Structures are given as C-alpha cells and as structure tokens.
Amino acid sequence: xxxxxxxxxHIPVMGTGxxxxxxxxxxxxxxxxxxxxxxxxxxxxxxxxxxxxxxLPFQEISAKVEDFRAKRITSxxxxxxxxxxEKLNEVKQSFEETGSELEKYVxxxxxxxxxxxxxxxxxxxxxxxxxxxxxINENITGGSIDVNIMTKLDKQNDASNxxxxxxxxxxxxxxxxxxxxxxxxxxxxNPSLYAYIAGFSDFYPNKNGEIKKxxxxxxxxxxxxxxxxxxxxxxxxxxxxxRIESGLNCGGHAFASEGYLIGPIxxxxxxxxxxxxxxxxxxxxxxxxxxxxxxPDNAPEVRISAQGGVGTSEEHTFxxxxxxxNSIGWGSPFLLVPEASAIDTDTIELLKSAKxxxxxxxxxxxxxxxFNNVINNTKDNDRDKRIAKGKPGSGCPKxxxxxxxEYEGETLCTASRKYQKQKIEDLNQMNLSSDEYxxxxxxxxxxxxxxxxxxxxxxxxxxxxxxIEGKEVSVCPGPNIxxxxxxxxxxxxxxxxxxxxxxxxxxxRPNMFVKELNMYVDHLKKKFSEAALPLxxxxxxxFKSFKSNLLQGIDYYKNMFSSVGDKLSYDLDDLDVFRxxxxxxxx
Length: 587
Fold this sequence. Notes:
By secondary structure, this protein is an alpha/beta fold. The protein has 3 domains: 9-335, TIM Barrel (Alpha-Beta Barrel); 363-475, no CATH class; 509-583. The chain contains 20 helices and 10 strands. It has helices spanning 22-26, 40-53, 68-93, 101-108, 114-124, 129-139, 166-175, 191-197, 222-233, 262-290, 313-322, 345-353, 378-388, 417-428, 434-445, 450-461, 490-497, 512-530, 537-564, 572-583, and strands at 9-11, 32-36, 145-150, 182-186, 214-219, 239-245, 303-307, 327-329, 359-362, 371-374. It has an 8-stranded parallel barrel with strand order 1-2-3-4-5-6-7-8, surrounded by 5 helices. A two-stranded antiparallel sheet has the order 9-10. Helix 11 links the parallel strand 7 (303-307) and strand 8 (327-329). Helix 18 packs parallel to helix 20 (572-583). The longest helix has 29 residues, at 262-290.
C-alpha cells in the first residue's frame, strides 16, 4: 500500500504485541502505526487468527521450515496489507451511506485538512457522482503499515550465517513483503544489519526520489542521526525519516542521554535540517553512481518526527509548528483505545487507575536498560511469587532475549531460571555480608520475562491460547499515562489530539518539557547517589557534563517559554526549582 498519511500523528510501536495488529484496526482511517517484528511466534498466531476471521487461506509455517522466521513475517505483513486494502476500499465505497465509514474517516481528519474541506464541499454541492468517486479514489489514502526492528536484538541462530540472526531475518521478512512503507530501526546502530539492507532493491530510490521501502531511524540526538544517516548513505540507503524520542519521557525501554533534553535536540534538528539532507544526499548520490544505480534528480524526502510524553493538543500543535515536524508520535494514550491496540481488559483497568507514583523506570529488562513499568502488572507479580517460593527465574520459551554469553554453551536470557540459578550459585560462593548478598540477589532476580509478557495481552484480547506464554502480562507505558484515566473510542482520542475534545481531567499535569526535565534531574540524583566515592576521573567528567547539559537545557527553555506567549502552558518557576536541585549536586 502506498501511503501519504493525512494525519499529523502516528502510533509508535508498543511492546511486542500491543500494536501487532494496529494497522488492521486503524490504517483504513489514514492512521499510520508500527508493528514489532520481534516475536515471530506471536506473528504466526495472529496470522492464523486473522486468516480465520476474514476467511483467508492459511498454511502454517512451522519452525522446521527453512528460514521460517522471515517467511512468517513476510506472510503476516502481506496478509495485513491485503486486509487493509480491502478495508480501505470499503471505506471509499461507503460514500453514499449516511454515517458511513468514509464520514468517520473524514471527521477524524485535522480541521484544516484540505481533504476534509474538499469532501465537505462535495457533500454540500451536487457534484457528479462519478467525479466524486474518482476524487475519493485518488485522495482517500490509508495509513502506513510500518514495522519496527530493535537492531541489537540480533540473536545468532547459525554461527556460519549472520543472515539467519534474528534482526537480519526480520529485515528480510519485511524486504520480501509487498508493503510500501518504512522499517523503523531503534536501539542503536548495528553495522552488519545496516550493510544487509543494501542487498534489497526495494530500499533504493528511483529517478523521482521515490522509495518503496523506506528507512526510519529512531534517534535521541542530532549527532547520532548524522552519523547513522551518512553511514547508510555511503551504502546507497537513504534515511527517509528521523524519529526523535525523548530519552526518559516515553514508554518501553528508556535510553537516557547524558542530560540532553528534547527541546534543544529538536531545535538542533530544525537549525541543521538542510545540512543533514545535503550532506547525506551527496554521499548517497556518489554511492549510487558507483553502483551504477539510478541517481535521483533531487534529494528524496526527509521527514522529522518526535515522540515521548505528548499529551495535549496544545503540545501537539506546538511541536509541529515550532520545530517544523512532520508527525508526532502518540503512544501510551492509545493503550486506552482498544479499537487501536491489542490489549486485554484487565490491563486497561490497571492503566486507567495508575497514578504518577505507580509508574516508574525499573530494572526488569534482561537487556540491562531501564524499562518503563507500572506497579502490580501481573508478570512482575508472578515473578515475585516465584522468588518468595525460592524458585526465581522464568521459563524461556521464546529466547528472543537470550543474548548473555557469560557461561559457556548456549546464550541465556538473564530473566531465565537457568541463568539465575547459576548466578545465585556463584553468589553463594562469595562470602558476602547479608546486606551485600541481598543487594546482589535482588539485582539478579528482578529481571522479568518481558519478551513473552509484552505479547501476551494481544493473545488474551484475541481470545487465543496462552499455554506456552502463560496468562501474565507485561506492560510498558510512559509516565504520561498517569493523566489518562478512561477507556475511550478511537474518534474521541483523535479529537483530543486535534483539540476538538479534552479527555484529561487532571489540571496538575505538567508540561511535557518540564516533565522530562524533572525525570532527568531525578535520574541524575539517583546515578550520583549510587556512584562509588571518591569519584574517579571518568565519573567526574560524566556528572559535570550531565549537569552542564541540563543547565543549558533550562536556559533554552527559559528563552523558549518567554517567546512563545500563550501557545504553550508553562511555569517558569519550575525551571528555577530544578536549577537549584542541579546546583546542589556537588561534583
């Protein structure tokens, strides 16, 4: 499906399962969303589910089939594409029906949408039926069916063939599909995977700069974007979108920066956008010429988007206008929209009742990266019960995070029973004090089986078997979910995004920039309190740089807030409070 989204927001990937079928749910309304390609077992189950639902032919791709992971992904994406195309056609064909799906599509568009304006003129006028139908076919487009690959989740499956690694196979599955959309690469740079992209013709531009399969990079700063953009351009691959995500004020894994705040980062992208495009296009053109491939007449389109903590129409509009962004990611709030995400009712209730104090960055992820979490999720509760019984660790039925090679033999997941048993045996040989022993024991056993837990909700929501996975659910909302306390329809959430409705009842919700600053100050204080004293030279440099970046960010916000007038709600006094807290951290 070709896509030119009529909306100014997208639904980012959420866990392995929460957006596994979001395109089937929302793409027919022009809304773009992102499918995780981590869990091919879940993907195969969902393919069977939708094949049965829409009476499509289905043949199981078992784990005994050669290249089964890539083939499962390709088959699922092709099926999703077919279903979305059929649903979009139904939307288009409903234009003469009162209260039709087409009216729902149009009503959800931004008020200033040219498509909405033209459609309403057609309805009020007496245009020729055939011309109206032709206009609808040409202008009503579906949302993009994008996919996400966490580049570091590249578990080796065949020591003699890197192409069978998990991330490589996922990329191949997308590359071989019929989709015309983007692969969102997140979690850092993987040179081997990046080089592998160049082996698929769909990633290369034509003379007009059009690309069937695009690359979107999820980045946390401009320097990283420039380095990765150039690296790919030197291999003939164009980055069509740079997706900037807040390091802490987001859902899922939290890739905290060294105190770089999203406002100054977005400003740097705005100021250097032309340099980013020009410098990467020169490298792209040179490489394509060397490969004797088509060189576009002009640089292909580059989109800049942002996500992380956005919660009001005011913030949405400000980001678009002030930083010249193309799209804003709205993630966690859509967990309360079951029309858009695959989530079970119990988890919805947990999120509806979650307050600020219930949401925290945890150490549960086997990846060793802070993970946004909510108290009383059933996966962590089950983990704690096993610890209390003296049987810590989980089964490891899927092994997607079995990346630890600390012990000889197979790689293990640090949340697995096998790994934790070995670590605790090692711990017992160390003759530690009781306090130190407990501290290290807790560090081992806190890990949770999230690669399974993050997909279980989608199985429960679809009434599918969870015999392998169990019924316990992991969920990874951003802190912003604390201010959303009700389940809502898709149309109402979209109205909230565009300022036609307001579903936040808490007047104390902080500005998204201030919330992120608050989280970074807390993160700095936590890191500082945990550091061994006296600080070594490396730690001194780190903490001084962290403080300096935060203080520069505060100065930026002071100037920005003072210049934007009533376009954004803010309190300058908050900035002074955080400045004082930072100054009190003496390195």
